[in-house]
Structure formats: structure tokens, C-alpha cells
């Protein structure tokens, strides 16, 4: 599930509530499943963000990569230590918070459970840059 303005942890109550929001906004059609309703809500939120000119990533907001990477570990720890983190439906790991920050910086989708698969998260964008330069 795509990450946007709210976390996408696999929690049935939250998913049901997001589907209800899609219903109330008139985004869903009769017979739509919960996942389809959530995808429509996410697409609607993305369109609102585009209409308002909200950057799609931290990088697009003008934050330099070197500055961001120099502070991402501290940001992750601060997010973990924040008093609001304990109110989340699922207590995140620092590594998950870091991955969310990295994905948000580079404009990538975050999906719960993919943190372990993204071991080389910082090198991937640099490799993309090299590939673009050589093309």
C-alpha cells in the first residue's frame, strides 16, 4: 500500500476508517473493496497536494542530500523518542522511522515490512544518478 499523508501499517481498524473517509468524500463506488477505497483516497490526497503545490519529496522542497543524510540518524532517533510515537497503533523501530524518512526524502513509496529488503537505501539513489549521467 502506498504511503502518503498517513501511515499504511496493516491495521484493520485504521484501514476501515480510511475506507469510510473515501465513502464520505464520494470517492468510492458501490462494491469497491476496502483496498480500492484506500487507493482512491490516496490518489485524491496526491491530487490535492499537487494542486496546492506541495513538494512530492523532501528533496523537491530544496533540502540538500548531504545535509539530510548528515542528520537522518538523529531525526530517526528524535522521532522514536517523541512522546507522540507511543500513541501510534504500532510502535515503530528506529530503522523503520529512518526508512520512512529516506523514502520521503527521495519520493519513494514506503511499505511496512520492506525495511529489511532496503539494506542499501542510501546507495540506490546515487547509483541512479550515475546511470543517468552515463546515459
Automatic annotation (TrEMBL):
It comes from the Bacteria. GO terms for molecular function: alcohol dehydrogenase (NAD+) activity. Gene3D superfamilies: Dehydroquinate synthase-like - alpha domain (1.20.1090.10). Residues 6-103 form the Fe-containing alcohol dehydrogenase-like C-terminal domain. It holds the Pfam family ADH_Fe_C. Coiled coil: none annotated. This is Iron-containing alcohol dehydrogenase.
Amino acid at each position: 500500500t502506498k504511503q502518503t499523508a498517513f501511515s499504511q501499517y496493516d491495521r484493520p481498524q485504521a484501514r476501515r476508517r480510511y475506507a469510510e473517509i473515501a465513502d464520505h468524500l464520494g470517492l468510492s463506488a458501490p462494491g469497491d473493496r476496502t483496498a480500492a477505497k484506500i487507493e482512491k483516497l490516496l490518489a485524491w490526497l496526491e491530487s490535492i497536494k499537487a494542486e496546492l503545490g506541495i513538494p512530492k519529496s523532501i528533496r523537491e522542497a530544496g533540502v540538500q542530500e548531504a545535509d539530510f543524510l548528515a542528520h537522518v540518524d538523529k531525526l530517526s532517533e528524535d522521532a522514536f523518542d517523541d512522546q507522540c510515537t507511543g500513541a501510534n497503533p504500532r510502535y515503530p523501530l528506529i530503522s523503520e522511522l529512518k526508512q520512512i524518512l529516506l523514502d520521503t526524502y527521495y519520493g519513494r513509496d514506503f511499505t511496512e515490512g520492506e525495511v529489511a529488503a532496503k539494506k542499501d537505501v542510501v546507495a540506490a539513489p546515487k547509483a541512479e544518478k550515475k546511470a543517468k549521467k552515463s546515459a
